[in-house]
Automatic annotation (TrEMBL):
EC number, UniProt record: 2.7.4.2
Keywords, ordered alphabetically: ATP-binding, Kinase, Lipid biosynthesis, Lipid metabolism, Nucleotide-binding, Steroid biosynthesis, Steroid metabolism, Transferase
Annotated protein name in UniProt: phosphomevalonate kinase
Top-level EC class: transferase
Domain of life assignment: Eukaryota
The organism's taxonomic lineage, starting at the top: Eukaryota, Fungi, Dikarya, Basidiomycota, Agaricomycotina
InterPro entries named among the record's database cross-references: Erg8, Phosphomevalonate_kinase, Ribosomal_Su5_D2-typ_SF, Ribsml_uS5_D2-typ_fold_subgr
Length: 453
């Protein structure tokens, strides 16, 4: 719902970059992005202050953390400017500011004022806002929680934890799992505010994919990209925000120059909507359909703490600049493999739709075959005694061959990414992870693996 007198609830998924790590920074190369079942949720409701004549207040809470409550006052400087100030709230939030939330509030209210007028926004905020933000457990490492309950590190143990479990720590101390928590948080928050304040229509999110998305959904995407970049202090590739808005996709980044007019700290005199409007042709990102095949799922390891992505990216880009021809040849080769993997996985979905029974039998059979050596998958998976050279079994064989192609492509991507890591002196897939991945891929029913971007 988008009425300012009722509650508004939104959610946004996390992301996994299945293929296209590092390459996705360049708009010549798309990334294969999968949105996760784990999501961030934002609930916006009236704060119900004592009097609508009191200072406009916005309270934001994140109940999964210690001392995670922030209070903001909203003021209007003249007919156009909106100011959002963080204030200490009985000491609970004085020590820990939340830059992501603060910027999301500032910029979203400023955009809403441009779209709806300052007077309309003031009226919508007259009783303040009470905002609660939570994320599914998968966004944070649960090792400490499992250890505290003497539970083994298994999926069954994770299922025993309560939803939105308390992390036991303050926000700066949490161990993230790399699912794009900041992008999902910002996307859910700015979308909830835009809907709640009536800045975009209530049905703005009725169409999920980027190709047929409404202008309201695209505006939420552009705003979330902007806020996320501003909070991080740089314009990244944007695939994480795009996944949070549009779901799984083949993603090609936007030109960073589109946000250049808005990336200064003080832009109070710069209108947001002309830059963020979907009609602005400088928003040249591309979102193409993608989904995982039926009866497959993506499983991720809880590594407790992610790598220093900016440092790794910096080293890779430095190597690319110093060895342009070599890097281009390698990136072009990896890009060809990435695109082929995307096509193969989409073809599996098409084959499942054309012949569900053959697809079901193929999946059931492959899930029982253990690949003792990862490069022997073709021989092992095609050794099905039920596959005969007749028309009845052709569809079954074709499905198995597509899974073999997906397996081989993922292995080739890994090999070429390791090559890039060696040449750039970056641990893209260190030996410890190579050993772990090889062991996982040898398990029955595993199609492929890798270190996600």
């Amino acid at each position: 719902m988008s009425s300012s007198s009722s509650s508004t609830v939104t959610s946004a998924p996390g992301k996994v970059l299945l293929a296209g790590g590092y390459l996705v920074l360049d708009n010549a190369y798309p990334g294969v992005v999968v949105s996760t079942s784990s999501r961030f949720y934002t609930v916006v409701r009236p704060l119900l202050a004592d009097s609508p004549d009191a200072p406009i207040q916005i309270r934001v809470r994140s109940p999964q953390f210690q001392d995670a409550s922030w209070l903001y006052f909203v003021d209007f400087d003249g007919p156009h400017a909106v100011r959002v100030e963080h204030v200490a709230d009985n000491g609970s939030s004085a020590a820990t500011k939340n830059k992501f939330v603060h910027l999301a509030l500032q910029r979203t209210l400023a955009l809403a004022a441009e779209l709806k007028s300052v007077g309309t926004l003031q009226n919508s905020l007259s009783y303040g806002l009470d905002i609660t933000i939570v994320g599914d457990n998968d966004f944070y490492s649960q090792r400490a929680q499992l250890a505290a309950q003497n539970l083994p590190r298994t999926l069954d143990s994770l299922a025993k934890l309560p939803p939105f479990a308390h992390t036991g720590v303050r926000l700066p101390d949490v161990h993230k799992t790399g699912l794009g928590s900041s992008a999902a948080l910002i996307t859910s928050l700015v979308s909830a505010l835009l809907l709640h304040l009536g800045a975009i229509p209530r049905d703005a999110f009725s169409s999920a994919d980027g190709a047929t998305a409404s202008d309201g959904r695209k505006l939420a995407h552009n705003l979330a990209q902007y806020v996320h970049c501003l909070a991080q202090g740089k314009v990244g590739s944007g695939f994480d925000v795009s996944a949070a808005v549009f779901g799984s996709q083949l993603y090609t980044r936007f030109d960073p120059a589109v946000l250049e007019p808005l990336m200064k700290d003080d832009i109070s005199d710069v209108p947001l909507h002309p830059v963020l409007a979907p009609s602005n042709p400088k928003w040249d990102y591309r979102v193409e359909p993608f989904k995982l095949p039926p009866q497959t799922r993506l499983m991720l390891a809880d590594v407790d703490a992610g790598s220093d992505t900016p440092s790794l990216v910096g080293k890779v880009l430095k190597w690319r600049q110093a060895h342009a021809a070599e890097a281009k040849a390698l990136w072009d080769r990896i890009d060809g493999l990435n695109r082929a993997l995307s096509r193969t996985l989409l073809e599996l979905s098409a084959k499942a739709a054309r012949n569900p029974e053959a697809y079901r039998k193929a999946v059931k059979y492959i899930s029982t075959i253990q690949s003792v050596q990862v490069r022997r998958a073709r021989a092992q998976w095609l050794a099905n005694p039920n596959i005969a050279d007749n028309e009845h079994h052709i569809a079954l064989k074709q499905v198995i061959e597509s899974f073999i192609d997906a397996h081989n492509l993922s292995q080739d991507i890994r090999a070429n990414m390791r090559t890039m890591g060696e040449r750039a002196d970056v641990p893209i897939e260190p030996p410890e992870q190579t050993a772990l991945l090889d062991a996982c891929i040898s398990v029955a029913g595993v199609i492929g693996g890798g270190v996600p971007g």
